[in-house]
Amino acid sequence: MWREMKTRELTATALMLIACAVPAAAQDDGMPQGKRPTVSRDAPPSSNATVNLINLLVKQGTLSEEQAATLVKQADDEAYVARQATRDATAKAEGAEKKATSAADAASPPGTKRVTYVPEIVKKQLREEIRAEVMDRAHKENWASPGMYPEWAQRIRFYGDIRTRYEGDFYPPGNGPLQNFNAINTGSPFLEDNANAINPYFPPTYNTTQDRNRFRFRARLGADVDLFEGFTAGLRIATGENSSPVSTNQSFGTNGGNFSKYALWLDRAFVKYQPVQDVVGSVGRFDNPFWSPTDLAWYKDLGFDGVAIQARHEVAEGITPFFVGGAFPVFNTDLNAGLNTVDQSGPVKSASRDKWLFGAQGGFAARFDPETTLTMAAAYYQFTNVQGRLSSPCLVATASDSCNTDLLRPPFAQKGNTYMRLRNVPTVTSPVTTLNYQYYGLASEFQPVVASAQLDLAQFHPIHIILDGEYIWNAAFDRAAVSANAVNNLAPTATGTPGAYEGGNKGWLARLTVGNKEVKHLWDWNAHVGYKYLESDAMVDAFVDSDFGLGGTNLKGYFIGGNVGLGENVWASVRWMSANNIAGLPYAVDIVQLDLNARF
């Protein structure tokens, strides 16, 4: 007991000696400039007594090597600043002395000798003022502690990730041709026959028969910036074959091939304000503000344009309600949008067809014990001006002519939603032939209601068992109205003529995940399995997952996958998805994805 008490006293005394002696030792002029004493358990004896003392404490386990090295570096920095302050003080004192001597010599008779005396208290005060001035300058200009960023740079956090992927798309026999309405609506209108009947063989269609093997990659680079008093800003750029909102993948060999360079897109640009800990307001283009544990309703990396407010507050121990609300412009009408006709007042301009998304979500997170967490939420979304409407009677002679509801066609779509004709092209009897150049709009309104839940069981930490579930229902869906105007999602018949409308307005997804919640380190892992069922008009297909079934709604099927860590922030992924059409012509595809991921 006596020996242990003496050891403690010796250690405390040694630490006090280090605190006083290290700065002086660090000023040893015999040491080469920029080189510090080696601090290590295995270091040989040093001529510096302070370093020997630190090494002794490292060997005894009182200090770690990192702590000892930090102590010596701090002392070295302080000694450097002290030497700089002393030099500056000496230089200023010498300058002042020379000026005083010159003035005295000018005022004194020839032959007079004077000795300038500066009191010690004045010298000390001068040294302290210059030391403070040098220290302030050292921190601002980053030469007191080499390797540290200036203050303004420390408020910027860069981040990014890179993913390389092999993807195989495999189609079974028997798939029917799926009309590509997005290609029509974003290009020239489709010329139907004179009977206004859809010709399923000549319009643009998706590939549903030819297996494909693709190598793809994704790269993203972003920065978050702390501004002042609760304000932050962010930017991110990303790859992508086009401006699609649901994919930043770039396939090798596209966009001209021959090793051509690839484009970058502005993926995020926002300002956030957090006046208090529990409230955040965002404006610009930012991550999905709504809590969504799956990609049933929203693609997981979808960016939202507009304004959103998020609030959460713990009302009791482990119980935290939250709320999200926002308004998001989906499409803004061109100021110069116009028709090809004139009236007495001049050219006719189209009415504004701005499209908006409004959303609100409320929910709670409940931690029942350190190993069990349940999160639940319900959300309501309303899309405005996304449903198509038949135009007034409109004669079109060329593909460049327009009608007054053309702007209601979707500016981007995947596949799955039910479509209707937008142009009311009257039938003209012979000998005049009517050219029915047609665009297509969504046949249904969309007001999705989404219920979400996640149960996280961490009894085997770090291994988690996570159950995710989500259900969606389009409250604005009118089956009779949609069926009356539908040109797709119709049941196939033996004669080849369109059958009854088969679409719907519901969807659900269930998923089980086992393993590490996040894969960050070597040999971290997780695996998941799930089932997805999403009817044609449960959600606007432009914003749902782009991988399952190669994107869109009107799909059902299984998926399974896993991840394993290969090192710090490097991991590999594998996923298999099998999807089938719910309504309309037969369509099925199996997709295999092998990924190598890295983030920084």
From TrEMBL:
Q: Which UniProt keywords are given for this protein, alphabetically ordered?
A: Signal
PROSITE patterns recorded:
PROKAR_LIPOPROTEIN
Q: Which InterPro entries match?
A: Porin_5 (IPR032638)
Where does the source fall among the domains of life? Bacteria
A Pfam family of the record is: Porin_5
Q: Where is the composition biased (Basic and acidic residues)?
A: 91-100
Segments of skewed composition (Low complexity) = 101-112
* Region described as Disordered: 27-47, 91-112
Signal peptide from the UniProt entry: 1-26
Protein name (Swiss-Prot/TrEMBL) = Porin
> What organism is recorded for this protein?
Bradyrhizobium betae
